[in-house]
Each structure stands twice: as C-alpha cells, then as structure tokens.
C-alpha cells in the first residue's frame, strides 16, 4: 500500500474522534469507521463490522456495500471464518489468499465464488455479552500488510469506543428510567397508605421479595394499578 504519513493518520483519527464524540448514532459512527477504512487502506475493496452476542445472535453493520453482510451471513451459516475468529478469538486475522486458505474449509471456497480473495479482520472489542470485529476484504490476493494492520487496529479502537459509549448511555438511560418508576411507585404508596418514603420503599422491596419479581417490575405494577384504587 502507499505509506500513510503518521501525522496524516493522526489528523484523520482526530477528525474521527471528534465526530464520534458528537451526539450521533452508533450506526453513523461505525459507517464513518468503515468508510475511513476503505480510504486509508487502499487494498480494501469493502469493509464492515460484525458483532456477535453470547446468545449467538449477530449483527452485520456499517457495510460500505452489501458484500460484507453477505460474507457475514456465510460465516454464521458455516460457523467459521476470519470475522468470527477475530471477534471471539485472535486480535488480528489476515488472509493472504482464500483460494489456498485451509483454516475455514467451507467458508473460503464460498467467498472465492464471490470474487473475494483476501481479507483483514481486527478485534473490535469484547464485553460481557458481545464480541466484534472490523473486517476488510479485497478482490485480489495479498492485499493487506503490517501497516494496514496498524491502521485497522486504530480504527477498530474508535469503533469499540463508540459502541461502548453507546452501551453506557443506554444503561444510564435504563437506570434513570428505573429510578423514575420506583420513585413514582413510592409516591403512589405514600399517598395511598399514608406512609413516609422509607416505609413506602420497604413495602416495595417486600412485595418484590414475596413475589420473586424485580423491584422495577413491582413498581410498574403499582403505577399501572393507580387508577383502580
């Protein structure tokens, strides 16, 4: 590939970091990452992101065209391939030529039929429930080198940060919603039974324990029955 000057790469990464920090969806950030992968890694003819949940469900995201999604479908069908291996195992998986690649005996010949001859997959991140990889593919063999791996690793770090930030945001929103529901239920119990806040919360907790139901679900039931008393 044509060498990328380190200051040029740093400048582009700074641009990506600034856009990732703005209020945008994960999908938009990942699309920026895959678009930049194609721009900064000339050998990459297509790029995408694969996320795999612990339950085996997968999401094929931010493809620069439809091909990465087709390749992800093949990997899920065959339960093998470089994206899966990078997502749940190796940090970097580089394939020089799928025509002679023996690690994935079902997947490799299938992608060759689609014209894909080499690939580069980099672990995106691992969390309790999800694994992921940033994936690039080329229509020629030996399209990727060590410098490409470095660039892809930096891009993958940005993608991981965006996903983790989004997950933290979702968890925060969920926590706030839970707190609001419990607070609302406490208020209803205080008014209904003439008790103070601490007693109302104790009553909610007791209901939760007696019914073996999550506290937030008990709170929602109290809210739902507000009009029936």
TrEMBL record:
Domain of life: Bacteria
Gene3D superfamilies xrefs: 3.30.450.40, Winged helix-like DNA-binding domain superfamily/Winged helix DNA-binding domain
SMART domains in UniProt: ANTAR (SM01012)
Keywords: Kinase, Transcription, Transcription regulation, Transferase
Domain ANTAR, residue spans: 162-223
Annotated GO MF terms: kinase activity; RNA binding
Name used for this protein in its record: ANTAR domain-containing protein
Source taxonomy: Bacteria, Bacillati, Actinomycetota, Actinomycetes, Mycobacteriales
